[in-house]
Design a protein that fits this description.
Elements (H helix, E strand, L loop, with lengths): L1 E5 L5 E7 L7 H4 E4 L4 E2 L4 E5 L11 E8 L4 E8 L5 E12 L2 E9 L6 E8 L6 E5 L4 E4 L4 E8 L7 E10 L2 E2 L6 E4 L4
Antiparallel strand pairs: 1-5, 2-3, 2-6, 4-5, 6-7, 8-9, 9-13, 10-11, 10-14, 12-13, 14-15, 14-16
């Protein structure tokens, strides 16, 4: 998180995580006094608060406070978690007459807890929910991308299917991906 400060003389800057259950006390709630106050010019500075979000307790409202000999001011920012986003069916491969491998991806900034593949035989509106456990997934740290593989057996030959993927993390269920269609063929 960044805090941009317009000040002359140079201020003392510190960050506070606001907790609605406690009285604000800069000695107990102060996260860090800004030692990395970067001068952008004579009167404009940047303070940066860096930390890794590891759980719900790291989320909330943070306040950047600046104080110099003339006065003081503050600004607030809210850090929120989000359910998985950008779910996609990346590829579908027919591995035998009635089996499909469905590769899917999601972006999530928190570990995925559950996946479901929604499968329906066209033209039916009814969809089966096929669960996938998280230990069957691959995670790429650099992109926060979770990849997984669904193996679907016992499908009807020569049938057309519609598929969507949905996932959840500690912040809830994401939106279902766009529906992708696949026509089974005989070998």
């Amino acid at each position: 998180m960044f805090c941009y400060i317009l000040s002359n003389p140079k201020p003392c800057v510190y960050w506070v995580k606001l907790d609605p259950k406690r009285e604000i006390d800069e000695n107990t709630n102060a996260l860090r006094e800004s030692t990395s106050l970067k001068n952008l010019n004579d009167t404009y500075m940047e303070s940066k608060l860096e930390f890794t979000v590891k759980s719900h307790s790291n989320l909330g409202i943070f306040e950047c406070r600046a104080k110099n000999g003339i006065g003081e001011d503050s600004a607030k920012v809210e850090l929120r978690g989000s359910p998985p986003v950008n779910g996609q069916i990346k590829s579908i491969q027919q591995t035998n007459v009635n089996t499909l491998d469905v590769n899917t991806t999601f972006i999530s900034y928190s570990p995925i807890l559950n996946y479901k593949l929604l499968l329906r035989q066209i033209p039916s509106k009814f969809a089966w929910e096929l669960p996938l456990t998280p230990n069957e997934t691959f995670f790429y740290v650099s992109s926060n991308m979770f990849n997984d593989l669904f193996k679907i057996d016992n499908l009807n030959m020569k049938s057309k299917y519609g598929m969507q993927v949905i996932a959840n993390n500690e912040f809830g269920w994401g939106n279902a991906s766009k529906e992708v269609f696949y026509q089974l063929t005989t070998y």
